[in-house]
Specification:
Layout lengths: L2 H34 L14 H14 L1 H4 L30 H10 L16 H17 L2
Helix pairs in contact: 2-5, 4-5
This protein binds heme C.
């Protein structure tokens, strides 16, 4: 084989390998990202748990949460969706994280995959979610 032809063959082989690598790379890195994806950012509670905030939280809770989670927050509401078990919000058990920010995220985003606990983002304001978090802390403290 004349030497320039060999060079072309080698180049072609190199190119093919490169194209294969390039094609394989994105899917490999996407898979890695899916595995390593960090949990949703956990925000700090920006709203002080004043009496006013707790009272605002009580109002939101009474309208939107009590039917499932109960007057006392113990998960025994009058009207849960059939076959679901609303969480007790005044015990020490937080299945989805016990910081204010994690509770905020659950209320905002709901609980996948079934969303028996709905996402409230867009239906109540961010401030209202924080007020409810403050209210739940107060409710838990009082039920001890
Ligand atoms: C239709 C019934 C329903 C309504 C209304 C509802 N929830 Fe829930 N909630 C659930 C269920 C069911 C779960 C348990 C979800 C799971 O873990 O699979 C839950 C879980 C939660 C959790 C997680 C508790 C933990 O242990 O981590 C929080 C916090 C919560 N709800 C707060 C609220 C707030 C605040 C409202 C009102 C804005 C609300 N929920 C309205 C049914 C409801």
């Amino acid at each position: 084989m004349p030497s320039h032809k060999r060079v072309v063959t080698v180049l072609a082989a190199c190119c093919a390998a490169f194209v294969l690598l390039a094609a394989a790379a994105p899917s490999a890195s996407t898979a890695a990202e899916a595995v390593q994806e960090p949990a949703a950012e956990v925000p700090e509670n920006p709203i002080e748990a004043t009496e006013e905030s707790v009272r605002a939280g009580l109002r939101v809770y009474g309208r939107f949460c009590r039917s499932c989670h109960g007057v006392r927050g113990d998960g025994r509401g009058q009207n849960p969706s059939p076959g679901t078990r609303p969480a007790n919000l005044v015990d020490d058990e937080w299945v989805h994280g016990d910081s204010d920010g994690e509770i905020y995220n659950v209320i905002r985003q709901g609980v996948p995959p079934n969303y028996d606990m709905d996402a409230w983002e867009g239906r109540i304001t961010e401030d209202e979610i924080w007020h409810v978090v403050n209210f739940l802390r107060e409710l838990a403290a009082r039920s001890r």
